[in-house]
Amino acid sequence: MDQRKKFILMIASFLISSMRTLLSIQGNILQLITTSRKQREILQSAITQRNSALEKYMEKKNKSHRRDIKRNAWKIPGRTDLWWTNLLLGISPEDEWHKNLRMSRKIFMKLVDHIRKDIEPNAESFRSDTICAEKRVAMVLYYLKDQGSYRMTANSFGVSLATLAKSLRLVSEAINRNLGPELIKFPVTKDEIKNATSRFEAKFGIPQVIGCIDGTHIPIKRPSDNPQDYFCYKMKYSLNIQAICDEKGYFTDVEIKWPGSVHDARVYANSSINKALVSHKFPSIYQELLPGYTPVPQILLGDPAYPLLPNIMKEYANCIEDRHLTFNTYLRSARNQIECAFGRLKSRWRILNRPVDVDLNISVQMIYCCFVLHNYCELNTQDISNDAVQAQLNIEQRCQNCDHHDHHHIKNHFSSISQ
Fold it and tell me: Do residues 214 and 303 touch, judged by C-beta distance below 8 A?
């Protein structure tokens, strides 16, 4: 009987051990299945990533291949730059430089040398027909000097539209970066301010004037974002550009960031120059004209569109006495410098008279480049025809016949300014 119990216990122990072994094996199998599933998912993810990277690589290679195919026809058959080659080699008359590029050969080459390092082609370029720095600058000046189109300029220089667009961006940025801070500079030191006010007083007899301020509208294409903000009183889409010039008509400050619907008074109230003058960022040179009276700070001469402020002087709106008329005459004569400067700017770079066919961001760079080139030409005595300037001034005068300069209109605009 005891042997039978021992045998039963032995069988039971064996079965329990077998069950434990089976459960352990089952657990290992389940763990192996789970691990295999995770490894399969990881492997599948790696395969998917590899396929995606391969597709992107092949797409990039195809685009590069298509671009290389297009560049095989860098010069479209039928287009030629023979006239530019003749001009550069001296075959054409020298006065053609000024007619087509608004400056002489010597001044042109000087301009190219200033920005050559930013626009010249790579020295390791494998193409023999790579566009040189002189041709890039010439294309941009030729485009800016007239109211022509991209295609007209591209055909004249025998290049594609994309090449001209790239050249316009590169040259404009290079001129603004290398010449902008040097040629458009508002007097900031005590000596600079004193010299500026002294020169202005010596020429026009008005003391403490540091410059003339005014706004001008440059037409642009209809923007895709908020086009109503750019629709100005001249019934076109434009940018309202504020500029300050000295007694010679050289621009000392240009602000290009406001849409055409914004009034001149609001542009000035939010401009960096106004904030600097109000916060006394610039050193003040006060002059006591009459003993016992408040000294006069540096002032800017503005037209009736601007409010009368401690740093803005404008003419009498209503003349009651003869001295008011005399004062207005002197002030208009002095303030006329900014009007003439705009006239020379737009008659020299006539692209500013029509909606430019480039994007808004590039338009801002291009417009500022025109201001820099204006100062460059003026400083190097590259004159513009007086008839062309007078014609431009007549156009600007006709555009001012509106309520833009009405006194009540100005007052309402300035009272609603949000600082």
Answer: yes
